[in-house]
Write a structure and sequence with these properties.
Radius of gyration: 20 Å
Number of strands: 10
Strand order of the largest sheet: 3-2-1-4-5-6-9
Distance between the termini: 27 Å
Shape: globular
CATH architecture of one domain: 3-Layer(aba) Sandwich
CATH topology of one domain: Rossmann fold
Largest sheet: 7 strands, parallel
Order of helices and strands: EHEHEHEHEHHEEHEHEEHHHHH
Helix content: 25-40%
CATH superfamily of one domain: NAD(P)-binding Rossmann-like Domain
Length: 355
């Protein structure tokens, strides 16, 4: 009988790829959704399970409510807690974001402990590692963000992960945490994630250029592999694992996209927009406003621990950025310009298979 894994927030971008990775490797998967009646949002996952002959089921559970979690965990050997709010703009009240992240995480961990699961893998973020520091020194799993100097989203991820480790220590829970960087890669459906916005804006030419921002990128397919390895490697218990590559400026992404898509009729902006202009645009563009705390900052992190202890690896960032863009086109999120050429590249692979 296959081991059953509960994956929270099943219809999310990262969770969907984690589910695909688990099904590809013979696990039975139970995914949580907020609304069982909304079958359209999970149709792509059902189709995926049918293609690989995998066992996939869904249950209703909400991070803001205790109801349903005991049933969700029942019969599962493992839990992957992937779900967490990721705002597309700064929240009007940071407490709502923080409370959902922290309370939701503890809700899942309690259910897992009460249900006797063997291990919980928690998806945190590098923003729980790098935020609020005065310098851009290389950060490792030993580092924690400075909450008092962090924006709402990094604060929520840091406090949620801290609460998880405190809970694990008090309850003797087998916990592993994955700290991904900026997650890009192909979509499984037409629902985008906040992390796709830089590539979408560049490809659609929604802005005259790029703010002076950048990220340590990870491909969602490689991240899904990291989650599976965190579940399978016995020695991973009690550890955090940074999964992120080298820092890539948004303008560098623009140049990659222009090189690939320019000959196909896309006018991808490649210039860097001065900070003063970005701040002016942010007055009426909430998405740009979200980038202001990181203007000019470099995300420098080491993923050596994940490589050496989990045997994890990453694909080149160029492949990730271009596959992200191809996926946005395939799902109709960005339109091909009039007279534009069809893609000469291979189709982006939406289902994660080992890197």
């Amino acid at each position: 009988m296959s081991s059953r894994v509960l994956v929270t927030g099943a219809t999310g971008f990262v969770a969907g790829h984690v589910i695909a990775e688990l099904l590809e490797h013979g696990y039975a998967v139970r995914g949580t959704v907020r609304d069982l009646g909304n079958t359209d949002k999970r149709a792509h996952l059902v189709a995926l399970a049918d293609r690989v002959g995998g066992a996939l089921e869904f249950v209703a559970a909400d991070l803001n409510n205790d109801s349903g979690w005991a049933a969700a965990v029942s019969g599962c050997e493992y839990v992957m807690h992937v779900a967490s709010p990721f705002p597309s703009a700064p929240p009007s009240d940071e407490r709502e974001l923080i409370d959902t992240a922290v309370d939701g995480t503890l809700r899942v961990l309690r259910a897992g402990t009460d249900g006797g699961v063997r291990r919980v893998v928690l998806t945190s973020s590098i923003v729980a590692v790098i935020s609020g520091h005065a310098t851009d020194a290389v950060r490792t799993e030993a580092d924690w963000s400075v909450v008092e100097r962090s924006a709402a989203y990094p604060k929520s991820k840091t406090l949620a992960e801290r609460a998880a480790w405190d809970f694990a220590a008090a309850s003797d829970l087998d916990l592993v945490v994955v700290n991904p960087g900026m997650v890009l890669g192909p979509l499984q459906s037409a629902a985008t994630s906040t992390s796709h916005e830089p590539v979408r804006r560049l490809l659609a030419r929604d802005a005259p250029g790029s703010p002076r921002v950048g990220w340590a990128v990870v491909d969602v397919r490689d991240l899904a592999v990291a989650h599976r390895l965190a579940l399978e490697v016995p020695e991973a218990a009690g550890n955090r694992y940074i999964c992120a590559g080298e820092h890539v400026w948004m303008a560098e992404m623009g140049r990659l996209l222009a090189e690939e898509f320019g000959p196909r009729g896309f006018r991808v902006p490649t210039r860097v927009v001065p900070d003063v202009v970005v701040r002016a645009i942010a007055l009426f563009d909430k998405g740009i406003r979200l980038t202001l705390p990181t203007l000019g900052r470099t995300e420098r992190l080491s993923s050596e621990k994940a490589r050496s202890e989990l045997g994890w690896s990453m694909r080149p960032v160029r492949e990730t950025v271009l596959d992200t863009a191809e996926s946005l086109l395939q799902h109709g999120i960005v339109r091909v310009p009039r007279g534009g050429a069809a893609s000469p590249r291979r189709a982006a692979t939406a289902n994660p298979v080992g890197a």
